[in-house]
Design brief:
Order of helices and strands: HEHHEEEEEEEEEEEEEEEE
Protein name: 3D domain-containing protein
Largest sheet: 7 strands, antiparallel
Structural class: mainly beta
Number of helices: 3
Shape: globular
Number of strands: 17
Organism: Cellulomonas iranensis
Distance between the termini: 22 Å
Helix content: under 10%
Oligomer: single chain
Number of domains: 1
C-alpha cells in the first residue's frame, strides 16, 4: 500500500484490506518504483497499487473463463458501435484480480497499472487510476485478421486521402471504476522527399464510468518513438495545437499535412492541453475539481518524418482517472511512469 502506513491499526483500513486483498499484489517483474503515482496524495487519502506486467497478462490470457468471454464480447460490441469491426478470434483477454484486459493480438501490450484510492471515511473505493502502456505493433505492420471498417467511430479517422493505412489496434481495461479503451492508427503518406518518408499517427482514448456514480475526470494520452526504433527524425505536424478550435466543424476536425487529409470525430472540445515535444506528442483532458459525465474521451494526431525507407514505430501511454466521490478523496492524479 502507498500513501499511508501498511501497519495501521485503523479498523476501517483493516476491513478495506480484507475486502480487496488482490489490489496490493505486485505482479512478477514489477517494481515499487514503477508503482508510484505522479502527484502527492491529499491527507487522509491512501492508494493501493496493482501492477500487471505482460508476462502475467499473457499467462492469464491462456486460461479462458466465462468472465473472459464476457469481456471479449463487450470489447467487440463496443468497437463495433464505434465503427470498428473486430474479429473476436484476433483478440486476447486476461482477467487478473478485479481487472479485465482485452486487446488486439497484433498489439504489443506492455503493462497495466491500477491505482485504487480510498479516504479515511470509507471502506469503498473513492477513485481509480488506470495506466496502460503499449509498445506498438506485435509484428511489423501486422494487421492480423482484424477487419477495420471505414465508417466514422469515436476517435477513429475516416475519409483519409493521400496515404495508405498500415495498422490500427486497441486495448481495453475494465476495473471497479469503469472501462478505459485506447487505440492508435498509422498511415504511410504518399508524399515524401528524397531523404524522408512521412507517417500519420492518430491516437484516441475513451473512458466510461462503471455507473453514473463514476466520472472520468482525467485522460492523459501520449506517444513517442519506440525505444528500440531510431528511424524517426522529427515530428513535423500535429493537432490539437494550443488555442485551436478543433470543434469548429460540428464535432469533426479536418486535419491535413504533407498531402494527407483525414476527418476525425472529436470527443471533447474543451479542457484539453496538448503536450508536443520534439518527436513525442500527447494531450491531457482534465475536468478539474468540478466534473460531470459518465463517458469522456481525448484525441490527437501527429505526422512524423522518418529517415528514407524507414518505418515509424511508436509506443503509447494512456492514463485515465475515474472519480466516484469528492475531488479531495479522489486526488493523486496523472501518473507518469518513469520507465515510459
Amino acid at each position: 500500500m502507498q500513501g499511508g502506513s501498511t501497519c495501521s491499526s485503523d479498523p476501517q483500513r483493516a476491513q478495506r484490506s480484507r475486502r480487496s486483498p488482490r489490489s496490493q499484489v505486485l505482479a512478477a517483474g514489477a517494481s515499487a518504483a514503477n508503482a508510484t503515482a505522479g502527484d502527492e496524495l491529499d491527507p487522509g487519502v491512501t492508494v493501493d497499487t496493482q501492477v500487471i506486467d505482460f508476462a502475467t497478462l499473457n499467462a492469464a490470457a491462456g486460461v479462458s473463463t466465462q468472465a473472459d468471454q464476457s469481456s471479449r464480447n463487450a470489447y467487440t460490441e463496443s468497437q463495433a458501435r464505434s465503427g470498428r469491426l473486430v474479429d473476436a478470434a484476433a483478440t486476447l483477454t486476461a482477467t487478473v484480480g478485479d481487472t479485465a484486459v482485452t486487446w488486439d493480438a497484433a498489439l504489443a501490450l506492455d503493462s497495466v497499472v491500477v491505482d485504487t484510492l480510498y479516504d479515511e471515511t470509507s471502506v469503498e473505493p473513492q477513485g481509480q487510476g488506470v495506466a496502460i502502456k503499449t509498445n506498438g505493433e506485435q509484428a511489423a505492420d501486422a494487421q492480423g485478421v482484424v477487419a477495420l471498417s471505414s465508417g466514422a467511430g469515436l476517435g477513429q479517422g475516416y475519409g483519409a486521402s493521400g496515404g495508405t493505412k498500415l495498422n490500427g489496434n486497441c486495448v481495453s481495461t475494465t476495473t471497479t471504476g469503469g472501462t478505459a479503451t485506447t487505440c492508435f492508427e498509422k498511415y504511410k503518406l504518399q508524399q515524401n522527399s528524397s531523404t524522408r518518408d512521412h507517417f500519420y499517427y492518430g491516437r484516441w482514448a475513451t473512458a466510461t464510468g462503471a455507473s453514473n456514480a463514476w466520472t472520468p475526470t482525467q485522460i492523459d494520452i501520449r506517444s513517442r518513438p519506440h525505444k528500440n526504433n531510431t528511424s524517426i527524425a522529427t515530428m513535423s505536424n500535429y493537432w490539437p495545437k494550443a488555442g485551436q478550435n478543433v470543434c469548429a466543424g460540428g464535432g469533426t476536425f479536418g486535419f491535413s499535412a504533407s498531402g494527407f487529409s483525414i476527418s476525425i470525430p472529436i470527443q471533447q472540445c474543451s479542457d484539453l492541453t496538448p503536450i508536443p515535444n520534439g518527436t513525442t506528442m500527447g494531450v491531457i483532458y482534465d475536468q478539474g475539481a468540478i466534473y460531470n459525465g459518465r463517458s469522456k474521451g481525448a484525441d490527437f494526431g501527429m505526422v512524423v518524418d522518418t529517415f528514407k525507407n524507414k518505418t515509424a514505430y511508436l509506443a503509447d501511454y494512456t492514463y485515465v482517472k475515474f472519480c466516484g466521490a469528492t475531488y479531495l478523496s479522489c486526488d493523486g492524479n496523472l501518473r507518469k511512469d518513469s520507465t515510459w
